[in-house]
Design brief:
Elements (H helix, E strand, L loop, with lengths): L5 H6 L6 H6 L17 E4 L6 E6 L6 E6 L11 E3 L6 E3 L3 E7 L3 H4 L3 E7 L4 H5 L18 H20 L7
Antiparallel strand pairs: 1-2, 2-3, 4-5, 6-7
C-alpha cells in the first residue's frame, strides 16, 4: 500500500460525517506504519476504543469505512475464532465484531452491516507472518502462497466494503 496523508485518510470516509472524519484519531504509530506490508490501513481509535476505521486503496482513490464495536461484543463461548477478512485463527478475544453504518441514506436510517475481524485490524501483518495470533489450539495449515492469501483477503474486504457502499466490489 502506498503511504497516505492525514488529509487523504480523513476525506476517504463514505459512511460518516465530515465532522466525524475530522475528529477521528489516527493510529498512535502513524509516522512509523509499515506501509509496504499493508494491504489496507485498519486501526482502533486510540481515543475511542469502541470505534475503528479502515481505509482501502482503490482505483478511484482510498475508500474509508467507519466501524463500531458493539457494546456487548462477545464472540461467544468459542475457544478460537476466524477473521472473515484474512481467515486467521485467533483465540476468541483476538476476533471482534465490527459494525459499519451503511453509506448514504441507508446508513442515516440506522442500517448497518457487521463482520468478524482481527481485533487489532492487522490482517496484512498476520498474512505475511509479521505478527502471530495468540492461539490456545493449533490453527489449520494452508498451502496458499502469501500472494494468494493477500488476494483472498482483499476480495473478502472488497465484498464487505461493497455491501457498506452499495457498490460493486472493486477488482484488485
Amino acid at each position: 500500500m502506498e503511504p497516505l496523508t492525514d488529509q487523504q485518510i480523513r476525506s476517504s470516509f463514505v459512511n460518516c460525517s465530515k465532522g466525524d472524519a475530522a475528529r477521528l484519531k489516527l493510529p498512535t504509530d502513524f509516522a512509523e506504519l509499515p506501509w509496504q506490508d499493508l494491504d489496507f490501513l485498519g486501526w482502533v481509535d486510540p481515543a475511542a476504543p469502541l470505534r475503528a476505521h479502515l481505509v482501502r486503496p482503490g482505483p478511484d482513490g482510498p475508500l474509508g469505512i467507519a466501524l463500531r464495536v458493539p457494546a456487548a461484543n462477545r464472540v461467544g463461548g468459542f475457544k478460537s475464532s476466524i477473521c472473515q477478512i484474512c481467515l486467521t485463527s485467533h483465540t476468541a478475544s483476538g476476533v471482534t465484531l465490527l459494525v459499519a453504518p451503511l453509506a448514504g441514506a441507508r446508513g442515516r436510517e440506522g442500517n448497518t452491516i457487521g463482520t468478524y475481524v482481527c481485533a487489532d485490524l492487522a490482517c496484512s501483518l498476520y498474512i505475511r507472518g509479521k505478527r502471530q495470533p495468540k492461539l490456545t489450539t493449533r490453527g489449520y495449515e494452508e498451502t496458499l502462497t502469501v500472494d494468494e492469501k493477500i488476494a483472498r483477503a482483499l476480495a473478502n474486504l472488497d465484498a464487505f466494503t461493497a455491501r457498506v457502499t452499495g457498490r460493486t466490489a472493486q477488482v484488485s
